[in-house]
Amino acid sequence: MLYEELGKRQAIEQLVKRFYEQVYADELLLPLFPTDRQRVEQAQIVFLIQLTGGPKQYEQYDERMNLAMIHRLLPIEQAHAERWIELMTLAVAETISNPEAAARLIERLRIGALNVLRICDAHRGG
């Protein structure tokens, strides 16, 4: 299972911490993110754990909230999605020691980022 291959919760927490260090220093992406970085990081940890086959943890979150609901009103454009994947790829390279698992994770996240972009475009009528 990808979750174990990545290094379980500890590795995902390190990945998320490194990723958001980059995001919150990035002029393009920063305006899309709330100031409550801790909440954003915790939600991303929960999401990545479940995305990779780890334990389900969404009972503490509103189950109606999914990627589409969370992102649909944000002004996410192609440049944002590309930068998000670029920073995530860098963070994965810096924190995940298993290259095969890292590549699989990036591919899943790339698909997710493109879906979010599609949802935002559709919501804007674009």
Automatic annotation (TrEMBL):
**Is this entry keyworded Translocase?**
no
Q: Which SUPFAM superfamilies match?
A: Globin-like (SSF46458)
| UniProt superkingdom | Bacteria
Pfam families on file: Bac_globin
**Keywords in UniProt for this one?**
Heme, Iron, Metal-binding, Transport
**Is Transport there in the keyword field?**
yes
PANTHER family reported in the protein's UniProt record: TWO-ON-TWO HEMOGLOBIN-3
Family per similarity comment: Belongs to the truncated hemoglobin family. Group II subfamily.
Protein's name in the database: Globin
Q: Which organism is it from?
A: Exiguobacterium undae
